[in-house]
Amino acid sequence: MSAEETTSGSTRIPREKIAVGPTLRDLALVSVLGLALQLLATDISALAAAGGMAGLYVICAAGIVLTRFAPFYLPSIAWISLLGIVATLPFTPWGSAVTSLVADIDFLALSVPALAYAGLALTEREIDVVKKSGWKLLLIAVFVLASTYIGSAVVADIVLRITG
Amino acid sequence: MRAPGSVLDMWRLHVAVLVIAVVAQLIDVQEIPIGPAAILLLPLLYAFLLSVLINPHVVGAASKFIRKREVKAASPMIVIAIMPFIAKFGTTIGPSFEELIEAGPALLLQEVGNLATVAFAFPLAIWVFKLRREAIGATFSVAREPNLAIIVDRYGLKSPEGTGVMVVYVVGTLFGTLIFSVMASLSASLGIFTPEALAMACGVGSGSMLAACSGSLSGMWPGMEDTVVALAGASNLLTYATGLYVSLFVALPAVEWLYKKARPDEKPVARKEN
């Protein structure tokens, strides 16, 4: 695994400094925010929504602990995604229980608080970048989306022709 | 590195986020239809816009309520707030694990096609538009939530790389369905791609991009609707299962390496998340 090499020289906070306690506290806070939004966004009962958010909390908390203490480094989101997959594998004894616990949680509503924090976190530096090269980035964005589509179509087309 | 003070100390920040998020959720999803596609307005966009409007760096008068210290404390909250989303997203992949294994080599290899973003968009960003480090965030991926989270983890959102990925994320959310349905119709009318390949390519982005794209293809080949939808769906599942790891371990290191080659004179800046 070349994760350590490829990340050398990055600006990441050393993981020894990940404060597990405060992070878990803040995670609890955003989970409560998330719960409120689930009640607005979905028709599920308060109990089901609380159960679902609690399930997600446990997955995230375990991911944070692994980020801090596992023998090799993976970003917290990679751990959390991996744990989410493992927790819902259908052939495991726990898979179907976890799946039904979190199944009704609304995807889109979960992303709303993160974007609200993001808008509040902006400073002059980021605003300057957008002012200076915003239109360029807009064009790049359209190009990124279009070229991803064409690139994938080309590779799929070639592989389909080879494999029949 | 933690923000000073406790949760209570930062109550202004969290109350602001709660109010903004509730308002955004109440406005709900709005669609402006354009032909088979639509401009999609999502709660997360309203949340972003509303919070920009009460950011003291943008609107000076807002500093009465949100001060510089709240802005500082908001930054580490971004990655924590995205965690439940990523967890939920993992739990949608697990149950489909067996389908993914059965998906076959074309679907798996097609993931490599996502790297076309790097091959085409990165040179454009660097040599045509003369962008600096924001090019890294903008061109390493198709900028959906997992990719956004990777950039936030590595550089922070308050960085040139963060600005780059954020712009592509917002454009993708707003115009993604439009771009994908136009691209699908265009490439279908070229007549050089098989419908199966174009259907698989529909899955590289978000769920709404997938819907618009496979909708356009079904319009072109009415008899193949079931095949198109099934392949596009399997591809989308795979993108979400593997995309995070491909962009973390392949695309981002590749773009970083290319950037060092393209701008050898630029001193690596010692930046810290502040």
Automatic annotation (TrEMBL), chain A:
Keywords: Membrane, Transmembrane, Transmembrane helix. This is Uncharacterized protein. The lineage of its organism: Bacteria, Bacillati, Actinomycetota, Actinomycetes, Pseudonocardiales. The chain crosses the membrane at residues 47-66, 73-93, 105-123, 135-160. It comes from the Bacteria.
Automatic annotation (TrEMBL), chain B:
Pfam families: DUF3100. Signal peptide: none annotated. The keyword Transmembrane helix applies. InterPro entries: DUF3100. The chain crosses the membrane at residues 39-59, 71-87, 107-128, 164-186, 237-259. The lineage of its organism: Bacteria, Bacillati, Actinomycetota, Actinomycetes, Pseudonocardiales. Keywords: Membrane, Transmembrane, Transmembrane helix. This is DUF3100 domain-containing protein.
